[in-house]
Design goal:
There is one protein chain. The N and C termini lie close together (8 Å). The protein has 3 domains: 49 residues; 208 residues, no CATH class; 49 residues, no CATH class. By secondary structure, the protein is α+β, with helices and mostly antiparallel strands. It contains 11 helices and 8 strands. The strands form 3 sheets. Strands 1-5-2 form a 3-stranded antiparallel beta sheet, with helices on one face. A 3-stranded antiparallel beta sheet has the order 6-7-8, covered by helices on one side. A two-stranded antiparallel sheet has the order 3-4.
Length: 320
């Protein structure tokens, strides 16, 4: 997956280490341990440490089962998505995999929750985003001054339906302006409501998945689930404690509750929608500092996102 552990890279390293360790203990005439064997052992050990009880259901029954488990009061349920062809929970398992002497130990949940309590949402997110953008622009200017002919990325835009590659000067201007907010945009005449429980659907067919896994977290406070799963802090995804802080803020203001969390997607459901355009626009800005791709690679403007928030009880976030 990602930065503080880019799972696919880390998984490859761990698979190789595990294969070497297992192979070294076997008689020289024994059959060699294959990468597939190592991957299965990696998954087995991660599953043994995974902190949620797993319950299998179907995509078309997932929300009803989630509600049933919530009402039972035996823990906090969360939909973890569908199983893949390897019957794996994917990168949800990465923090609990066997890291050996080269990997970081798991952060205690208590430490994550303590850090979450000190975060002011959304103010700290806004300041962090501003500081990060300013640092990136400052570094780019320094690199450009040291080497004016440095290679630049190829950026294309669509104008009148035709793709066009930016000139070098236009590319530099675009990169220097990359920290700017998205446009406000016009308020849309019609709005497509956000998808509901999107993680239980097969995006290729639009049909419910045949097998979906729900996790039951050992807590009566669902906002702690990102801490229990050590979820986040890769690419642009917030840290676990930042998810907890955002969830608690939205729970108190909008009655938000976490229904699903997969390797890269979160589905929240709210009890109260924003009531005015101004409130919806302010909320859209909170969503943007929490998950920029919802606009940058999604609806494109604050107004489009705000209109969607006024028309749906479901909030969708994803990080690639």
């Amino acid at each position: 997956m990602r930065d503080e552990g880019r799972p696919m890279q880390r998984r490859d390293v761990l698979t190789g280490l595990l294969a070497g360790a297992l192979g070294a203990t076997m008689p020289w005439r024994a059959q060699a341990v294959t990468p597939e064997d190592s991957a299965r052992e990696y998954q087995r050990q991660a599953m043994a440490q995974f902190p949620l009880k797993l319950i299998e259901t179907t995509g078309d029954n997932a929300l009803a089962k989630w509600q049933e488990l919530k009402a039972a009061g035996q823990g906090a349920p969360v939909v973890l998505g569908g199983e893949d062809e390897h019957h794996s929970l994917g990168n949800l398992l990465t923090p609990f995999a066997p890291h050996g002497p080269y990997g970081p130990p798991l952060r205690p949940v208590e430490d994550i929750l303590r850090d979450a309590a000190s975060i002011r949402f959304p103010d700290d997110f806004i300041q962090r985003s501003k500081d990060s953008n300013e640092a990136a622009i400052r570094q780019f200017k320094e690199m450009l001054a040291a080497k004016p002919d440095m290679p630049l990325p190829v950026i294309t835009e669509s104008k009148d339906g035709q793709p066009r590659t930016l000139t070098r000067d236009e590319t530099i201007a675009a990169m220097l302006g990359s920290g700017r907010e998205p446009p406000l945009g016009d308020w849309p005449d019609t709005t497509d409501a956000m998808d509901g429980l999107s993680v239980v659907m097969d995006y290729r067919t639009g049909q419910p998945l045949t097998k979906v896994i729900i996790g039951l977290a050992p807590t009566d406070d669902w906002t702690t689930i990102p801490a229990i799963l050590r979820w986040g802090h890769w690419n642009g995804c917030p840290k676990p404690e930042e998810h907890v802080a955002a969830f608690r803020n939205w729970r108190d203001r909008y009655g938000a509750e976490l229904v699903a969390i997969t390797s890269d997607v979160i589905n929240l459901r709210v009890a109260r929608r924003p009531q005015t355009r101004d409130e919806a626009l302010a909320l859209a800005r909170e969503h943007y500092v929490y998950c920029p791709d919802n606009i940058d690679q999604g609806v494109g403007t604050f107004s489009a996102l705000a209109a969607a928030l006024m028309s749906s009880d479901w909030w969708y976030f994803w990080w690639d």
